[in-house]
Automatic annotation (TrEMBL):
CC terms in the record's Gene Ontology section: cAMP-dependent protein kinase complex
Keyword Lipid metabolism: no
First and last residue of the signal peptide: none
Statement: the UniProt record of this protein carries the keyword Nucleotide-binding: yes
Residue intervals of the Protein kinase domain: 10-297
Membership in a protein family: Belongs to the protein kinase superfamily.
GO molecular function (one): cAMP-dependent protein kinase activity
Alphabetical list of InterPro entries matching this protein: Kinase-like_dom_sf (IPR011009), Prot_kinase_dom (IPR000719), Protein_kinase_ATP_BS (IPR017441), Ser/Thr_kinase_AS (IPR008271)
Xref: Pfam families: Pkinase
SMART domains: S_TKc
Keywords: ATP-binding, Kinase, Nucleotide-binding, Serine/threonine-protein kinase, Transferase
Protein name: Protein kinase domain-containing protein
Length: 350
């Protein structure tokens, strides 16, 4: 990891957001950057996690899962960059590269008519497919791929974030020989694959668990959402939970979509979405090498990155800089801290 300044060596710029266990703030180093430093090098996003909240209800495992995953994965260009971690009596800290372009869903909803143009959706899909391929090559499942967990950086590059549900699975665990399997019912309903739903409540249908195909399913949901403005099976909130589950279990091959829903998507987009949303995991498109050759990505220039991973060589599409927090670089406004509390030994190894 990078040599990250401590909080005492940085000044607060402003708050960026608040979550269930803490909040994120933007800091700037007190010493000025050198002229040759890359953009935003003097800025750091600091995620504060309350130790008292993180040590209850199994949350400690989620915090360690995120840290351990990012220690291995964060040098990939489409994965959030963890620069370091720290702790004090009240908080745990994640020091990260700022992603100030805003969440992906805010961008496609701001477009007219509430969805991305095809080439923009193709660009972001390609970047996220590259990220998932890299995760899976290191035996990691993300398990919560969705639009709000994808952030844009200052250049408009899509970056996969929130690795709290990430799980490393050993190849062959579960005995299927197709890669690691997980059995815990986690994620966000509207993006869950059928095999994940079968694990709810420890039901018998979930004995086989789920593997990397669950992440590819979630990508299919996201592609559909980027290109149409809504997820394919609904959000599953409130009274829609049951109908959402029922539609998911029908899969993309059996689902009844609204007339004309693919009108702006095109034949190649519809084909990719349906292949990613095949209800049976073994029928689903899950091989990145095959995916790269799909007609949907004909405009994408695939290149090999310095780490051996695949990158998108095309210039990032223009994006709305009024969405997100890019303006904080000129508008330095401080915010108050959150509540911490509680001394414990749960995080002795953090």
């Amino acid at each position: 990891m990078d040599d990250v300044p401590t909080l005492s060596e940085m000044s607060l710029v402003r708050g960026l957001g608040k979550g269930r266990m803490g909040y994120v703030k933007l800091y700037r180093t007190l010493s000025p950057p050198s002229p040759s430093s890359p953009p935003l090098s003097s800025f750091t996003a600091v995620k504060f996690i309350s130790r008292s909240q993180a040590s209850s209800n199994g949350n400690a495992k989620r915090v360690f899962s995120e840290r351990n995953a990012l220690l291995e994965l964060s040098k990939h260009p489409y994965v959030v960059d963890l620069r370091g971690t720290g702790k004090d009596e009240e908080h745990l800290y994640f020091y990260m590269k700022p992603l100030l372009g805003g969440a992906l869903h805010k961008h496609f909803r701001a477009e007219i008519p509430g969805r991305f143009a095809k080439n923009k959706a193709k660009h972001y899909t390609a970047q996220l497919a590259s990220a998932l391929s890299y995760l899976h090559s290191l035996s990691y499942l993300h398990r919560d791929v969705k639009a709000s967990n994808v952030l844009l950086d200052e250049e408009g590059k899509a970056v996969l974030a929130d690795f709290g549900y990430a799980r490393k699975v050993m190849v062959g665990s579960g005995g299927d020989g197709k890669g690691g399997r997980a059995t815990t019912f986690v994620g966000t309903l509207h993006a869950m694959a059928p095999e994940v739903l079968r694990c709810e409540g420890g039901g018998e249908g979930g004995e086989g668990g789920y593997g990397f195909g669950a992440d590819w399913w979630a990508l299919g949901v996201l592609v559909y959402e980027m290109m149409t403005g809504e997820p394919p099976f609904g959000y599953g909130v409130g009274g829609e939970r049951g109908s959402c589950k029922e539609r998911i279990m029908g899969g993309g091959d059996g689902a009844v979509f609204e007339d004309g829903i693919f009108k702006g998507v095109g034949a190649s987009g519809e084909d990719l979405i349906r292949k990613l949303l095949m209800v049976e995991e073994e029928d689903r498109l899950t091989k990145f090498e095959v995916m790269k050759g799909h007609e949907f990505f004909e405009v994408i220039r695939w290149e090999e990155g310095e780490g051996g991973w695949v990158e998108v060589g095309n210039e990032p599409p223009e994006f709305n800089t009024d969405i997100g927090d890019l303006e904080v670089l000129e508008d330095a406004v401080g915010v108050g801290g959150g509540e911490g509390g509680g001394d414990n030994n749960v995080f002795a190894g953090f």
